[in-house]
Amino acid sequence: MNKQLKFITRTVFGMFLVLFFSVTMIQFVAADDLRANELNQRTVKNGYKVERGSILVDGNPVAFSTPTNDAYRYVRQYSDGELYAPITGYFSTRQGRTGLEDAMNQELSGTANSQFFTRIMNTINGVDPQGSSVETTISAKAQTAARDAMAEGGFEGAVVALNPKTGEILALYSTPSFDPNQLSSNDDAEIIKNYRQLSEDPSKPLNNRAIAGDLYHPGSVYKLVVASAAIESGAATPTTEFPNPAALALPQSTAEMQNASRTTCGGGDTATLQQALVFSCNIPIAELAMKMDRDEVPKMANAFGFGQDLDIPLAVTPSEAPIPKDKAQVALSSIGQLDVRATPLQMAMVSAGIANGGTVMKPQLVKSVISPDLKVEQEFSAEEFSKPISAKTAKSVAGMMEAGVTDPGGLAKKAGIDGVRVAGKTGTAENSNTDDANGVPFTLWFTGFAPVDDPEVAVAVVIESGGGAAYNNLGGSYDLPTEVGKRVMEAVLSE
């Protein structure tokens, strides 16, 4: 009998320990994850009973909650919804959360660990729960300039602008965009209808082209990574000369590479690395890449951020720069084709790192979290992301980029700003896996920074389909993203 009682006692005690452990895990360890789960409808509905904090740009609310007379008590609203949708995302009773509404949900809803004592005091004092506000790093002038420049041309694509010294994101724009107000009403039927229309739209307005969605071949802006790898490793300097044929037979292949001009890179028998960047020639860059180890350029790309997980705090799709399998692939990869793909944010990070003396700062979209009584609960400081190149290498590459703007034949000359030293690089990528109406799909790029001597802004612009039907979807329209980038840089420098 005693033996049986001991067995039962131990079994009950063991079950109690398991129960205690499970409750502890659920209530304390997994509580935040369970609250954050988008399938947790109780959390979503409770979120509407709290006056959610605002999302601020230059101190002004671009996302905020207003009282209602329905069961939800509040409705989320967005001013300039399409302009800031790539940043704010949406907060919806039916479709969950995206953007900062999701990434900063605990702070906005007042459930973050840093707000624990505030919740206790509000309960004691009988104060209704209220979320904190999130101040972004976005410049309203830069964001508006990006929107206006893209809209005037009727372009699809994205624009990113960074402060090279701090990593602060000054503009993050994606177009086509959408109005988050369409998904934030408390009318479920209306939300379902609007979401279906947006999700089925072939232009994919819900995709944040600046940091996610379908990545782009970077084309010739990737040559900045090749030049950085070559100079840092000692394989070349800006004055290093390369054979200058009009066509290059790729090793172990029947394929042939040409420059975009279908001629030589300048008129001489040789071309320098600087000429290759200024005139955006393919052949000298491919020759240079094939001289180096086949993993040299991908290693440099990785050091700049390719292939690395990043949150800003929005989740960023990693850019791709795999190691080529042979010399032919080395050549094609070196000009930003084949399997190389990038987000505009990634290419802005490349320019920002060059501008900042070889140090890439971690991009950040949130400046601070502000409590309802206007106290700063969290303040985000600049953080180093990587140091892919030395200050000497950065100065050499920056000099070649500046020549691309100042040289009369430079393809980035349209980026010039009176009285300001500007560095820039254009790019055109052929996207053979895309089939537009004319069968000639091109992606246009510009990246650069200013002022060269004391950088305040680095920018990357991508325009899909060569600027669209108005420009015959052709790749010769490289001035288009350059002019967009110039306007965004001017907006930042005017502040």
Automatic annotation (TrEMBL):
Looking at the UniProt record for this protein, which Gene Ontology cellular component terms does it annotate, in alphabetical order? plasma membrane
Q: Which Pfam families match?
A: PBP_dimer_2, Transpeptidase
Domain (Penicillin binding protein A dimerisation) spans 52-134
Question: Which InterPro entries does the record match to this protein?
Answer: Beta-lactam/transpept (IPR050515), Beta-lactam/transpept-like (IPR012338), PBP_dimer_sf (IPR036138), PBPA_dimer (IPR054120), PCN-bd_Tpept (IPR001460)
Q: What GO molecular function annotations does the UniProt record carry, in alphabetical order?
A: penicillin binding; peptidoglycan L,D-transpeptidase activity
Residue ranges the record marks as coiled coil? none
- Tell me the first and last residues of the signal peptide: none
Q: Name one GO biological process term.
A: cell wall organization
Q: Which domain of life is it from?
A: Bacteria
- Penicillin-binding protein transpeptidase domain sequence ranges: 157-472
Q: PANTHER family recorded for this chain? A: PENICILLIN-BINDING PROTEIN 4B (PTHR30627:SF24), PEPTIDOGLYCAN D,D-TRANSPEPTIDASE (PTHR30627)
This protein is called what?
Penicillin-binding protein
